[in-house]
Amino acid sequence: MVRDAAAAVRAELTKIVTLRAVWLVTGAVVGLHLLLWTQNIDAETEAVDGITADGMIERFPGTVRPAREALAEYLAASSFQMCLFLPFTAAVIGGQEFRAGQLGASLLAVPRRGLLVGAKTLATGGFLLSAAAVIAAISTAFMYGATRGWDPGLVVSAQAWAAQAKFLAYAVLSGLVTFAVTLIARSTLAGVLVTVVLTALTMSQVLAAFAPALDALVPLSAGRNLILLPGEDLRLSAGPAHAMAVLVAWPLLATVTAAVLLTRRDAR
């Protein structure tokens, strides 16, 4: 059983890494991250140069915060913004077999459909984790360049590691939601559209203004609640423990639904 599962995961991961579309989308996300950091590095360096003797930083006009806390948060937040686009990679992964009509062949290799969905999910999660780790590494390198003259150890501090770990968790879990939705709908476009709608719910702040409890249940809002710290200019709709519970529940329920539906449908 364990050998069968491991073999299935390896087979699914091989499919992922041989898909040109997956690398094109992932490369575009990584390239965008590099571009944004390249444009922002001078501003971050200037803000670090202005850190006061008591360790306070003003990254935004009128907002003064403890430097280590603010910079560790920004380290993860700069990576977090890429999670607006990284789920598109998951949608491409999830929809490729339906687009290519290869699901029947996959089921011949792995007849147990629950095992197949589990293998696909683990392989996708592994690829998303790798992509997110590259994004986090880029953020770390640029942040080191901005802070090395003030505190070169900031990027490997406990605060920085904790912030990056939260980002990695969100990147994988949110991507798996899109992946599972794509499996359910059997369409890459459907996975992308659902992701866009869920993102719009958070970005528009409609739920946050009128129903904070509902806003806290949206994946992107949960990611914000997990990674960012509350302040005068930022009100969160829930705490980090609640956010993590939401982020785990979404892909779990969506993946179980995808597995159940796959067992009841034909292999087209």
Overall description:
This protein is mainly alpha-helical and 268 residues long. The chain contains 12 helices and 2 strands, in the order ααββαααααααααα. A two-stranded antiparallel sheet has the order 1-2. β1 (56-60) and β2 form a beta hairpin. α4 (86-100) packs antiparallel against α6 (113-147) and α4 packs antiparallel against α8. The longest helix has 35 residues, at 113-147. The two termini are 26 Å apart. Keywords: Membrane, Transmembrane, Transmembrane helix. This is ABC transporter permease. It comes from Planomonospora alba. The chain crosses the membrane at residues 122-147, 167-185, 192-214, 241-262.
List the uncertain runs: none
Give the overall shape: globular
Q: Provide the helix percentage.
A: over 70%
Beta strand count = 2
- Largest beta sheet: strand ordering: 1-2
Task: Give Rg in angstroms.
Answer: 20 Å
Beta-strand fraction estimate: under 5%
Average pLDDT score: 87
Largest sheet, if any? 2 strands, antiparallel
* Helix-and-strand structural type: mainly alpha
Protein name: ABC transporter permease
Keywords: Membrane, Transmembrane, Transmembrane helix
Transmembrane segments: 122-147, 167-185, 192-214, 241-262
Helices and strands, with pairings:
Elements: H1 2-17, H2 20-49, E1 56-60, E2 63-66, H3 67-80, H4 86-100, H5 103-109, H6 113-147, H7 158-185, H8 188-203, H9 206-210, H10 212-215, H11 219-227, H12 240-264
Antiparallel strand pairs: 1-2
Summarize the structure.
With 268 residues, the chain is mostly helical. It contains twelve helices and two strands. It comes from Planomonospora alba.
